[in-house]
Amino acid sequence: MAAATAAAIASIIAILGMPPETQAPLEGVGRVSAPTLREGATLATAREHEPTRFDGGATPALTSDSAEQTLGETPWDRRDLVLSELLARLVGNDAPAAARIAELEDNGYMREAALRVVAQNWTRRDPIAAINWAASLGDQEERDAALANAALELAISQPQLALQALGRRSAPPSPDSTLAGVVQQWASNNFTTAYAWVDAQPSGPDRDALLARLVFARAEQHPADAARIANIAFSADASRLDAIASIAVRWGAQDPMAVREWALTLDTEAQRRVWTELAALGQ
């Protein structure tokens, strides 16, 4: 398996004409086998159709034509890896062209991967344009997935823009795991602002699900603050008790004495959950 994986990576490096030390990690390498590539055919096509960079660098500038030609010469069992890597590179030169190639892919699995690669890489370069493209996709499921991928890319750097992207989805689920992921990443960079936004949301299961993510993230570095939030912020008592139990586990492994002192400030049912978790930890 290790030899097959190495062969796959080496073949893609050859296809793209990039030195091994600059080759980015490839998603999904372990999912495919790696029989020998038709010697020279794809590499020759890629090099013939890619123009030299204007700055004189060794890596050629990828174009839509050269990407499509390279894909046409790629064996089927390598196509998913090559398609993803070519699109990631093409976004840097011509993002709309990369998007067109992704949208023309008719294999379901590869199409999903291609749209994801374009959404992620385009968002890193031009988030507004990427979000507008994602929102323009005709298929509802693909549109919502592309907007979700864009939002997750923006969660730390531009959380408000990430929320706007999610707001353009046609059918956000409940509970919304993508929104929860955005909020958790946002909180890792600016907990106060993320918590204020969540706290201002309408009371109910969706808000409680977001609070649970925040409490879990906060408990790692600031368990006392997480404990305070858990005891006062949830609308449903079951959610409150679950959050308290999760804090007891994490905090109890670090400072069981502090957890015992905290437990004494809680109501009877919450205390019972804390004692149960401490007992499971052997504390």
Would you kindly provide a written description of the structure presented here, covering whatever features stand out?
This protein has 283 residues and is mainly α. The protein folds into 2 domains: 1-125, no CATH class; 203-283, no CATH class. Helices cover 70% and strands 0% of the residues. The protein is built from 15 helices and no strands. The protein has helices spanning 2-16, 41-49, 64-72, 79-104, 108-125, 127-136, 140-154, 159-167, 177-189, 191-199, 205-221, 223-232, 237-254, 256-263, 268-280. The longest helix is centred in the N-terminal third of the chain and has 26 residues, at 79-104.
Strand content: under 5%
Distance between the ends: 44 Å
3D shape: elongated
Specify Rg, calculated over alpha carbons: 24 Å
Q: How do the helices and strands follow one another from N- to C-terminus?
A: HHHHHHHHHHHHHHH
Q: What is the number of beta strands?
A: 0
- Category from helices, strands and their pairing: mainly alpha
Q: How many domains, in number, for the residues?
A: 2
Q: Which percent range fits the helix content?
A: over 70%
Largest sheet: none
* Mean pLDDT over the full residue set: 82
pLDDT < 50 runs, ≥5 residues: 1-58
- DSSP helix count? 15
